[in-house]
Amino acid sequence: MLAYDTLSRKEITLELDPDAVIKVFVCGPTVQDSFHLGHARTYTFFDSVVKYLRLKGYSVFYLQNITDIDDKIINRANEENVPYDVISKRYTEEYMDIMKTLKIDSVNFYAMATRHISEIIQQIRVLVERDLAYETSDGVYFSVAKFPDYGKLSGQDLESLRIGARVESTEEKRDPRDFVIWKKMKPGEPYWESPWGRGRPGWHIEDTAITEKYFGPTYDIHGGGTDLIFPHHEAEIAQERSISGQPYLARYWIHSAMLNVNEEKMSKSLKNYITIRSVLNDYLPEELRYALLNVQFRTTVSFSHELMNEARANLSTINTIYRKLKLKIGPSKSLNENPAIAKLSERMDSNFDFRLLFRDLLEYIGKWNTHIEDLGDREAAIAIETIEWVDSFTGILPAKKGDFTGEELVGFLLKLRRTMREKKDFAGADEIRKNLRGMGITIEDRGEETIWWRE
Predict the structure, then answer these.
(1) Is 343's pLDDT higher than 80?
(2) Mean pLDDT of the chain
(3) Which helix (H) or strand (E) holds 379?
(4) So what's the pLDDT on residue 400?
């Protein structure tokens, strides 16, 4: 399986262990406002990628963080004269509701930043003790100059970053490139106690503290939008590798490109900022998924009504033929070989090319439709199985419940929970219980044994 790796800047073979749990982390949202189409593109793409990996037989633990404390959240709370967590809770609930509507249900664990303050403080403590971070009057900063590989992910060198860095007149930073990992409290702001005074974490340190807790110092795939490559993902690499001493943070870096609106970059200042909810007022979730996937993931999507109407027309064709086929032969039949799926798998195994996947599917649909009345049972069964196979990871057909195939993942989470309980990390163990409940899994501790069942 080939995929474009941001760090090596080329398509490489993903060497994933079929006998291990594949650990995937994608940066989640900052919950301070309604969510836009850029979020939809990123999370739809990685949802489909993870589902495809599982379809191929891999066990995947998909972790996502939620930034629920941030300057923007505090500013929004001040504007509304409410506590910060009123804002973060409101938009976290909105996010989860939108993900459910878009059928983005492959994430196994959502980790809230504010529930991992102790892990964040521990990482900062290590960096300070090793003289890789330092304290100022307004916070704690990471020393970029002490991590020579800073800039490799984004293709920038340290000196050019120094020249391009902006220096504020009141800054005490030793180097304009240094970034904050702990922000000291300003009057009226929410805070947590720390060795450096009351404050809250910087943005970058949240992710590495969370991934180290659940994955350890290294893992398989890190994903996100291209806007996060610098400085966010660059900072993550610097922090975690400085702590772990490992040669890498993630083995593979996969980034989806941005989304424009009518050929312009989407932004509030240009007044072309489109929320997911506003689009779902006019189009079906399946139509939005199809439109966002129907562009090679490294290519910028230009959102327009033409794009959505094309998706609607193509899905109408697919659904019409699918219904005709189902009426023709009834329940799906199990097939030993399916040449159409074999061909479409090649598209997915070559850089997750959903666009070519859909193009080839539509070609098959056209051929099946031209002689649908003459199709034999086997050929009709191949057609039905092919459409359902594509839908199983792209989510383009009307929602339906499938069989549960996550036994190995549940076992992995229960093992992680048991380790946390042994370390008396009961808060972390409770978080796993809550996330399992969100997956429809109930667990019960019976002495040293934990049993589970699916509701």
Answers:
(1) yes
(2) 91
(3) helix 377-394
(4) 57
Q: What pLDDT, in 10s, does the model give residues 77-109?
A: 999 999 999 999 999 999 999 999 999 999 999
pLDDT confidence band for 268 (50 / 70 / 90):
low
Tell me the two tokens of residue 201.
């974490």
Tell me which residue of 117, 296, 257, 250 sits closest to 191, measured CA to CA.
Answer: 117
Question: Residue 401 — pLDDT band, cuts 50, 70, 90?
Answer: very low
pLDDT tens per residue, range 176-192:
999 999 999 999 999 99
Q: How does residue 440 score in pLDDT terms, banded at 50, 70 and 90? A: confident
The whole-angstrom separation of Cα 327 and Cα 347 is 29
| 419 token code pair | 């380790």
> First-to-last CA distance in the chain?
35
Taking the C-alpha atoms of residue 124 and residue 146, their distance in angstroms, rounded to an integer, is 15
How many whole angstroms separate alpha carbon 177 and alpha carbon 163?
9
Is-above-0.70 flag for pTM?
Answer: yes
d(CA 309, CA 110): 33
Consecutive H or E run containing 454:
strand 449-454
105 Cβ contact list (under 8 Å, min separation 6): 47, 99
The beta-strand segments (E) located in 257-333 are 259-261, 264-265, 301-303
| Secondary structure of residue 283 in the 3-state scheme | coil
Measure the CA–CA gap between 293 and 270, rounded to whole angstroms: 25
Is residue 23 within 8 A of residue 219, CB to CB? The reply is: yes
Buried b (16+ CB within 10 A) or exposed e, 408-425: ebbebbbebbbebbeeeb
- 326: number of Cβ within 10 Å: 16
Unique residue bearing structure tokens 């964040």: 120
88, 112, 158, 221, 288 from 15: Cα distances, Å: 38, 30, 31, 11, 31
* CA neighbor of 215 nearest in space, from 226, 207, 203, 223: 207
Q: What per-residue confidence (pLDDT) applies to 323?
A: 85
pLDDT score, position 169: 37
Angle between helices 407-422 and 426-438 (to 10 degrees): 160
The predicted structure's pLDDT at residue 442: 80
Read off the tokens for 273: 């900022």
DSSP string, 396-439: -SPP-------HHHHHHHHHHHHHHHHTT-HHHHHHHHHHHHHT
Strand segments, DSSP code E, in 193-331 are 199-201, 219-225, 250-256, 259-261, 264-265, 301-303
- Looking at the DSSP assignment, which residues form a beta bridge with residue 5? 10
